[in-house]
Design the sequence.
């Protein structure tokens, strides 16, 4: 007799539910998030368990890895794709855990991708780099705004990155503005060092795999963006079509149309925000250094605005990279943009 387990995972506790092949509830219990305790509760049923479903939340690594290391067949549920009967008046953690097990039994469970354990630390290192980049940008914009507001002066981001703390005294007269600017500059220089240190570590630890080397032939994608895309994508074969990949990269609109009229929007945050950032960055570089990308951007810009034009170009770059990775062929801008 096959059994099916569902685990509704939270930050401090989990609810474990087990059903049999006739949908009868065999076991139910709320457990603290301790791997040994979860394994002890599952042990009597291990021989008959056809699979264990874990809800994909922010903290699934420890549980999924622990179960897989102990010989369990683990499925990672994709919460954004799971549908329940909308007429239900009451649900709780117990219901959710049994619903996960029920979908596994019926073979209708929307599954997420279990990223290889060995590559996750480097991927998370690049994610931390992105956090520092965003923080550095916020300090640069803060300093730019303060200079524009108080002095009517505009300074480029590259020049701001070259400033030293003592330069604040030559820019502002007021001691409070000097202190504020000096702190911005100090934060920018500190984050610069951390970003470079992370980049050096990543480059020393990994190389682009064969199927991702052709990414570097795409205008706008260099080493760091190439590593980011490789580590976030994992296996390109998990995306059956280019549309699935672009949707995962948040490069397409999230809306529902009927008779050319907007009837609603979907989940705008559904997808990978790190790939979304990577392709926007690639688009920004492409429109500066690729003639085909420049012309495409200008055409879009004339009809819409800079934000929409950049996002449209990022979608083009994402589509190109999908075929480059899938077919392992060099990038051809004329195929992407036309003659």
Sequence:
């Amino acid at each position: 007799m096959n059994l099916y387990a569902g685990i509704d995972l939270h930050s401090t506790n989990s609810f474990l539910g087990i059903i049999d092949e006739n949908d009868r509830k065999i076991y139910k219990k709320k457990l603290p998030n301790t791997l040994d305790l979860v394994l002890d509760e599952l042990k009597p049923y291990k021989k008959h368990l056809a699979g264990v479903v874990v809800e994909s939340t922010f903290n699934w690594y420890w549980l999924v890895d622990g179960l897989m290391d102990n010989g369990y067949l683990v499925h990672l549920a994709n919460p954004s794709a799971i549908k329940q009967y909308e007429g239900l008046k009451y649900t709780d953690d117990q219901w959710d855990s049994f619903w996960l097990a029920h979908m596994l039994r019926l073979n209708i469970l929307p599954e997420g991708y279990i990223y290889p354990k060995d590559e996750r630390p480097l991927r998370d290192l690049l994610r931390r780099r992105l956090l520092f980049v965003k923080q550095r940008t916020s300090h640069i914009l803060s300093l730019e705004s303060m200079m524009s507001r108080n002095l009517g002066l505009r300074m480029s981001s590259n020049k701001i990155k070259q400033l030293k703390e003592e330069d604040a005294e030559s820019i502002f007269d007021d001691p409070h503005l000097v202190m504020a600017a000096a702190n911005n500059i100090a934060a920018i220089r500190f984050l610069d060092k951390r970003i470079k240190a992370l980049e050096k570590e990543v480059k020393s630890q990994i190389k682009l795999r064969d199927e991702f080397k052709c990414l570097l032939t795409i205008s706008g994608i260099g080493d760091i963006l190439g590593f980011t895309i490789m580590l976030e994508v994992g296996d390109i074969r998990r995306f059956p079509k280019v549309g699935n990949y672009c949707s995962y990269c948040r490069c397409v609109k999230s809306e529902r149309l009927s008779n050319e009229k907007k009837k609603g929007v979907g989940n705008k945050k559904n997808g990978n925000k790190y790939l979304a950032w990577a392709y926007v960055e690639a688009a920004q570089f492409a429109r500066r250094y690729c003639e085909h990308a420049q012309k495409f951007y200008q055409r879009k810009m004339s009809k819409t605005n800079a934000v929409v034009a950049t996002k449209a170009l990022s979608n083009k770059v994402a589509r190109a990279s999908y075929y480059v990775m899938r077919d392992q062929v060099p990038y051809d801008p004329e195929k992407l943009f036309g003659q």
Q: What stands out?
A: The longest strand covers residues 13-20.
